[in-house]
């Protein structure tokens, strides 16, 4: 099983030196200005993606979504030897991006997630289409100050089984209970994203059993899932899960399903590490699309 795992911290400033070897005309400011507007990178994406990104009102939301789209392009260019500007994507009814061209790579599974400081990408390095991948990342710091955990969880009780709620309640203090909530939420979302269904999916149908109560920077591979309510899109066979701390403020989970008979895929804990990208690495093979968008 061969998977690409990339992580990008959106707090990295985009400097002129990162894009100058590519397209110096993208900069809308004076050449001696070091920091470049993120919107200049819209040139490296097709119009359909640009239109969606420009609808986002918050700069950080656009930055995360922009990086995610660039990571998808970089993956197919670097790993599957495609030409950046020839990639064609569409979206499913559940709004999941899918590759249309080149057609022979249409079954390659990939997924992105972004929250807080990070954008994560996972993609299958093989082309046989037997693997489904989903990833989710959560920022522990995003919480409502002053709430009790009972009040917080009351908004989500229909998403967790009794055993999962007990796991969270037994974690101790409020901060640890929240971390358990985010951990389970990551796991559930990773499955939902792997099977490509919408946000209204019944998360309570999935019950996770956590054997290692404390998360760490080293990937945990012992977590298991049971489908407790039958779902048309999902069985509990062939799944493996990888979860860990990305840093002290963010956790992630990866769901991997082997759709061929033979059980769950094997994950090498030593090899299950995210490669951290910088702007130069992300844009190394970037090529502008026709009729580029340039920041005003």
TrEMBL record:
Pfam families: AASDHPPT_N, ACPS
Domain 4'-phosphopantetheinyl transferase residues, every copy: 133-210
Domain 4'-phosphopantetheinyl transferase N-terminal: start-end pairs: 38-123
Uppermost EC category: transferase
Membrane-spanning parts: none
The UniProt record lists the keyword Cytoplasm: no
GO BP of this protein: lysine biosynthetic process via aminoadipic acid
Highest taxon in the source lineage: Eukaryota
Keyword line: Transferase
GO MF, any single term: holo-[acyl-carrier-protein] synthase activity
Enzyme Commission number(s): 2.7.8.7
Name assigned to this protein: holo-[acyl-carrier-protein] synthase
Source organism of this protein record: Actinomortierella ambigua
Lineage of the organism: Eukaryota, Fungi, Fungi incertae sedis, Mucoromycota, Mortierellomycotina
